[in-house]
Amino acid sequence: MRSVLIIAIIALSVVSCSKFSKVQKSTDYDYKLRMAEKYYVAKKYNYASQLYEELFPIMKGQPQFEDLFYKYAYCSYYLHDWLQAENLFKQFVEVFPNSAKAEEMEYMRAYVYYKQSPKAELDQTNTEKTIGLMQTFINTHPNSPKNKEASEIMDKCRIKLEEKEVGSALLYYNMGHYRAAAIAYTSLMNDFPDSQKGDEYKMQVIKSYYLFAMNSVEEKKLARFDQVVTECHDFMDRFPESSLKKDVENYETLSKNNIKAINNEQITKTN
Question: Where is the Outer membrane lipoprotein BamD-like domain positioned along the sequence (predicted)?
Fold first, then answer.
C-alpha cells in the first residue's frame, strides 16, 4: 500500500513538473502571469516565483507590475529566501513609495530581519537591525496598526541582546577573569538600564571586583578593596529595596576588614 502511494506521489510530481515546463516555455506573457497567479494562490511559491522572475523585466512599467512585484517579494519570503525577500521588500518601497502597500512592505523588510534573528549565544547583527528598522517604522508610521506588534518584537530582541551580554559576562566570571567580568556586568547595566535584573548585575560587579582584589598582588589589594566598598555604596544608592542588600553588606564588611588588615600590616612594617 505504501509503495503504491509513493509511486502515485512521484507520478503526480512528474506531471506537475511537465505542466510547469510547458508554462515556462510559453511566449504568451499574459498566460504566464495568469499561471503565476494560480500557483501563488495554490501556495506553490517555487513555481510562482520562477514565473514572476521571468516576467519581472517584461512587465516593468505596466499596470500589473506593482501586484507582480508584491507577490514576487512574498514568494521569496514564503520560500525562506530571506536575503532576496529583504531586498525585494526594500526595492518595492523605493519603486512604489506612494503605494497603498508601501507601509506593509516596510514592515515586512524589518520582519525579515527578525525571522533571521538567531539564538542568544550567536551573532546578533540581525537582531540589532530588527530593532533599528522596527523603530524607524514606528517613527515613520506613528498611527500604524502594526506598531504594537513592532514594539513587542523590539522588546523580544532587547531581551535576546541582554541574554547575549549576560552570557559573555558570565563566561569571563567562570574563567576567573574577574576584572573583565566586572567591566562586562557594568556595561550590561548601562546598556539595559531598565532591566528587572539590574540589582543582580550590580551584585555580580561587586563579587567580581572582590575576587579580583582577593587574587591581586599585595601592593594593589588596598586600592582594589576600596573599589569594592565604592561599588557597595553605589548599590545601596541604586537599589535600596533590593533583596540582595544583606549580601552587599557582607561584601562591604569583608572588604573593609581586608583594608583594615592591610593598613595594620603596613603600620607594623613601618614601625
Answer: 36-220
- Which distant-in-sequence residues (6+ apart) come within 8 Å of 169 by Cβ? 181, 184, 185, 187, 188, 201, 204
CB 90 within 8 A of CB 111: no
- What stretches of 16-157 adopt beta strand conformation (E)? none
**Residues with Cβ < 8 Å from 163, sequence gap 6 or more?**
120
Tens-digit pLDDT profile for residues 67-111? 999 999 999 999 999 999 999 999 999 999 999 999 999 999 999
Per-residue pLDDT at 8: 41
pLDDT number for residue 16: 56
What is d(CA 40, CA 266) in angstroms, rounded to the nearest whole number?
83
Please state, in angstroms and rounded to a whole number, the distance separating the CA atoms of residues 52 and 56. 6
Q: How far is CA 184 from the centre of its chain?
A: 19
Distance CA 187, CA 165 (A): 9
Domains for the chain: give ranges and CATH numbers: 176-264 (1.20.58)
Question: Do 172 and 181 form a contact (C-beta atoms < 8 A)?
Answer: yes
pLDDT value at 3 more than 60: no
Direct distance between the N- and C-terminal alpha carbons of the chain, in angstroms, rounded to an integer? 99
